[in-house]
Task: structure prediction
Amino acid sequence: MSKELLRLSGVNAGYLRSDVLLGVSLTINEGEVVCLLGSNGAGKTTTIRTISGELKPGQGRVVFNGQEIQGKSPPAIVRAGIATVPEGRSIFPQLTVKENLLMGAYSRRRAFRKAEIESAFEMFPRLAERQNQAGGTLSGGEQQMLAISRALMAKPKLLLLDEPSMGLAPILVDMVFETVAKLAAAQVTILLVEQNAHAALEVSQRAYVMERGRIVMEGTSAELRNSEGIRAAYLGGTH
Result:
C-alpha cells in the first residue's frame, strides 16, 4: 500500500469574501498520478492555489507528508516538497533554456545543479538541443516541457500541473501528455488539473470530478472513463 502524501479535508477557500471551494476533500498517494477534472470555473485552479499556499483556506486542513501546511507561505511549501507548473507556463522568455532551469534549482545546493540539468536533458533531449536558445523562442509544447523541467529541478515530492495542455495545438498536446506519462513511469507523484478528460484519464490512476467548488465524483480513471455521466459531460465531442 502506497503512503498517503497529500490530504485535503473539508477545505473551503476563495477570493475576498466569496468561497470557491466548498468542503473539498481528496487524497494523493506517493507515486500516483491523480487528475482533477471539471469545466471552467469549477474550482480546479483554486484547489492548486490552495495547496501551493497562494490561497489560505478559510476552513479545513491541508496535510502534506504528515504535516499541516495550510497557512504556510508558498516558499515554505516549495521547501516542503511541492512544486507547481502554473497555467500559462510562466517561463522566463528572455532567459535561455539552461538559465530557466537554473532558476528552478535556486533552492538546491550548487553541487547538485549540474546533475539535475543533465537529468532534465536526458528526459527531454529536445531541451538539450535548445539549451542556449531563449525560452520565448520555443514552441508551446517545448515551453511546457521547460516549465515542467524547471519545477522538477527542485526535486519535489509532489508536482502540481495546472492545465498543461491549454492553448496548444493537438500535436503539442500529445507531446505534453507523453511527458506526463514519462514522469509517471519515473514514479513522480502528480496532481494533474485538466479539461482534456480523454488524455488526463489515460495517464492517471485515479480521478476526481469537480463541479461548482465541490467534488461530485471520484474513482479509478478506468471507472470514470466507463461512467455514463462522465462520458456525457466530458468525453463527448468537447472536453
Summary: Residues 93 and 137 are 8 Å apart (CA to CA). Strands lie at 4-15, 18-29, 33-37, 59-64, 67-68, 82-85, 158-162, 190-194, 206-211, 214-220. The mean pLDDT is 89. The longest helix spans residues 170-185.
